[in-house]
Design brief:
The structure holds two protein chains of two kinds.
Chain A (H helix, E strand, L loop, with lengths): L5 E9 L6 H4 L19 H4 L22 E4 L11 H9 L3 E4 L4 H8 L4 E4 L2 H11 L6 E5 L4 E3 L5 E3 L4 H9 L3 H6 L2 H14 L4
Parallel strand pairs in A: 1-2, 2-3, 3-4
Antiparallel strand pairs in A: 1-5, 5-6, 6-7
Chain B lengths: L5 H7 L2 E4 L5 E4 L2 E4 L5 H10 L9 E3 L19 H17 L2 E2 L10 H7 L8 E4 L13 E4 L2 H10 L1 E4 L3 E8 L8 H12 L7 E6 L1 H4 L3 H9 L8 E3 L4 H7 L8 H11 L12 E6 L6 E3 L7 E3 L13 H13 L14 E5 H4 L2 H11 L9 E5 L3 H9 L2 H8 L2 E2 L20 E4 L14 E4 L2 H10 L10
Parallel strand pairs in B: 3-4, 3-6, 4-5, 6-7, 9-10, 9-12, 10-11, 15-16, 15-18, 16-17, 18-19
Antiparallel strand pairs in B: 1-2, 2-8, 13-14
Helix pairs in contact in B: 2-5, 6-8, 13-15, 13-16
Classes of the chains: A alpha/beta, B alpha/beta.
């Protein structure tokens, strides 16, 4: 997994609430057996018309946001299905961080598995970041994971919380299967005990 | 011992390792797998030279992509990309030695219907699947939730998940349901109350007289949509209804093991003085047959209501409602019961079980659907289909003018050829009304199977109580 340490980049504003995984990557793109190549179809039905032409008003089609690496989003971002294609599409497009007041649980987990940092902030901070993102490409934000701070283009600093284990994995780009396999003796001990207590499983 | 919730008890029984920071390795008893979210996980195992840790606890079935029309064993019926995904599941199941129900097997169906039907899902288990509607299995008092593909790979390789514990929420439905009101109306009404993010960070336990009175099929419908309420999982404590359903299923315990299992299962309930982080109570008598009007499952109203206006909402929901109404082609103030429907879809992991088909057939018996209506029933599994044929339900559907399909996810997410055209308006028993969910530009109204049947007859969203 790619490491996430410190990111300075353009933030795109997406104030719509309940942006769901079908919006992020519609189902016709789930038929792939690969993890890559989904960026071109990120937000497909919001981004292109039914002839495949770009819809100029859509935020990521605007020249100033085409290189966005951060999304500032409305409540409950990523609700809906478990499809990891959603963070794969964001990552492939170049988005490495999403800030919202809340995220759907599975999407939130999936982000960390792909080197994307989802940050939860209170409404007033999301509002302030949204206003900063509205300024366009000259308003570059910095996300410092080590320091757990967001710095806006005009120097405002907002601290954020992140689970310590997930932070450790992101900063070091760790594969968590490898980490879990180091605990194989605990898993085997559990299995031996469970086989006694609940043999029907 | 301090009092515990049902969730606490199942959690405690499955912690294989706890780190100093509280991060746990939760042991997984059943891992269900389908063709869409697993190919990259199996590929990951191959790349790393890893095997499936517990193939005997891993069950695969293709469901999302498969056509639901006759002759589907012929690979030409599937577009190439779908065919490749199904073929990948087929070969991965063989290569890694996991249980598998191919398309040609009568037991094939939607993974969340097959698991319980075959007795893979049992009370007190941990169950995961690369699909958000894994919440369904919570109806058995199993801790069940959806995971992403990286986590699918993690479970395949280690039979565990890295987890931190959620908070406990109790949703109590007191009293008795009124005629015409079903499990689907309960679960939609709850989401209407809490919103789609109301359950975020929680595991919900559903309880109360109205929940207790539900069959296992109804309980699965309620738990299925816990995810639409944002919860990690939904749970219902197992009781005699549960044990009765499980007993004798192919993979349920037998003999002395059954007795031992039953003894443990009977301890699986929330203690009287357990701590709840949040409690919601609804009166069953206050729940009417409901429909959704918008593009979020929280956009729920009784069928007797009218389409709301954006100004009825607050904050970010104002703009979301405006967008939803435009997408849905609806004007504020229109009675919901005047909305004309083009298509009716009965099926999905929410409402594709035998009881759902019975409820719809009861409304349709001896009647014809509205002229020009496109209507289909997609049973949740081959066995549900066979049973419905045996009970004469299939004939009722066919005589009414419904298409009688083979099992699969079908038009719930429209990954197979069953899709809506732009602007086509559908009354659907599925679980999501998101923009484009059933096909680009398609408009979805979520409702119960009985309400879907009523809409098929009249051509409009209809209060099923008027037809009873």
């Amino acid at each position: 997994m790619d490491k996430f340490e410190k990111l300075t980049g353009v933030a795109a504003p997406m104030p719509l609430v309940n942006i769901d995984t079908d919006m992020i990557i519609p189902k016709q793109f789930l038929k792939t057996i690969k993890r890559s190549g989904l960026g071109v179809n990120l937000f497909d039905e919001m981004r292109y018309d039914d002839k495949g032409n770009e819809i100029p008003d859509f935020v990521l089609n605007q020249p100033k946001y085409r290189q966005a690496e951060i999304l500032i989003a409305g409540d409950n971002f990523g609700c809906g299905s478990s499809r990891e294609h959603a963070p794969w599409a964001l990552k492939d497009f170049g988005v490495k961080c999403v800030v919202s007041t809340s995220f759907a649980d599975i999407f939130f987990n999936n982000c960390f598995k792909n080197g994307i940092l989802p940050i939860v902030q209170p409404q007033e901070v999301v509002d302030a970041l949204m206003a900063d993102a509205e300024k366009g490409e000259n308003a570059r934000m910095t996300i410092d994971l080590e320091a757990q701070e967001i710095t806006t283009s005009d120097g405002e600093v907002y601290p954020f919380e992140v689970d310590s284990f997930r932070k450790h994995c992101l900063i070091n780009g760790l594969d968590d299967i490898g980490l879990t396999l180091e605990k194989a003796p605990s898993i085997e001990a559990f299995e031996a005990k469970a086989a006694q207590e609940r043999p029907w499983v | 011992m301090s009092p515990k919730t049902l969730y606490d008890k199942i959690w405690d029984a499955h912690v294989a390792h706890e780190a100093e920071d509280g991060t746990c390795l939760l042991y997984i008893d059943r891992h269900l797998v389908h063709e869409v979210t697993s190919p990259q996980a199996f590929e990951g195992l191959r790349m790393a030279g890893r095997r499936v840790h517990a193939p005997d606890k891993t069950i695969a079935v293709p469901d999302h992509n498969v056509p639901t029309t006759e002759g589907r064993e012929n690979p030409d019926q599937m577009p190439e990309d779908s065919r490749i995904q199904v073929a990948a599941l087929d070969s991965n199941a063989k290569e890694f030695g996991i249980h598998y129900y191919p398309v040609s097997d009568v037991r094939q169906g939607i993974v969340h219907i097959v698991g319980p039907e075959q007795g893979w899902t049992l009370p007190g288990m941990t169950v995961v699947c690369g699909d958000s509607h894994t919440a369904t299995h919570g109806a058995f008092g199993a801790l069940a939730h959806g995971i992403g593909t990286s986590e699918v790979e993690h479970v395949l390789a280690t039979q565990t998940l890295i987890q931190s514990k959620s908070k406990n929420m109790k949703v109590e439905i007191t009293g008795k349901l009124q005629p015409g009101v079903t499990a689907k109306d309960i679960t939609l009404a709850i989401i209407g109350e809490t919103g789609t993010a109301g359950g975020t960070g929680y595991v919900i336990e559903y309880c109360g007289e109205a929940i207790r009175s539900l069959s296992m099929e109804g309980r699965m419908t309620v738990c299925n949509m816990a995810i639409e309420g944002g919860a990690r999982a939904g749970l219902i404590a197992p009781d005699e209804t549960t044990f009765e359903y499980v007993k004798g299923r192919p993979h349920a315990p037998k003999g002395a093991q059954w007795e031992a299992a039953l003894n443990w299962w009977k301890t699986l309930y929330s203690d009287d003085d357990a701590h709840w982080d949040k409690v919601i109570t609804l009166r069953a008598e206050d729940i009417a047959p409901v429909v959704t009007w918008g593009t979020s499952p929280e956009d729920v109203l009784p069928i007797t209501a009218t389409v709301p206006a954006p100004e009825d909402f607050k904050g970010g929901k104002v703009e979301a409602a405006r967008r939803s109404l435009e997408y849905m082609g609806l004007k504020p103030g229109t009675p919901l019961s005047e909305i004309e429907i083009d298509t009716v879809f009965i099926g999905s992991c929410t409402n594709g079980r035998i009881e759902d088909l019975r409820a719809a057939a009861q409304i349709l018996k001896g009647k014809k659907i509205k002229d020009g209506m496109r209507a289909m029933v997609v049973p949740g599994s081959g066995l549900v289909r066979a049973q419905a044929e045996e009970e004469g339900l299939a004939d009722i559907f066919k005589e009414a003018g419904f298409e009688w399909r083979l099992a699969g996810c079908s038009m719930c997410l429209a990954m197979n050829p069953d899709q809506l055209a732009p602007g086509e308006r559908c009354a659907a028993t599925s679980n999501r009304n998101f923009e484009g969910r059933q096909g680009r530009g398609g408009r979805t109204h979520l409702l119960s199977p009985a309400m879907a049947a009523a809409a098929a007859l009249t051509g409009k969203l209809t209060d099923v109580r008027e037809l009873m």
